[in-house]
Amino acid sequence: GAGVSQSPRYKVAKRGQDVALRCDPISGHVSLFWYQQALGQGPEFLTYFQNEAQLDKSGLPSDRFFAERPEGSVSTLKIQRTQQEDSAVYLCASSQTGGGNEQFFGPGTRLTVL
Amino acid sequence: GQNIDQPTEMTATEGAIVQINCTYQTSGFNGLFWYQQHAGEAPTFLSYNVLDGLEEKGRFSSFLSRSKGYSYLLLKELQMKDSASYLCAVRGNAGNMLTFGGGTRLMVKP
Question: Which chain A residues contact residue B4 at CB under 8 A?
Answer without folding.
Answer: 42
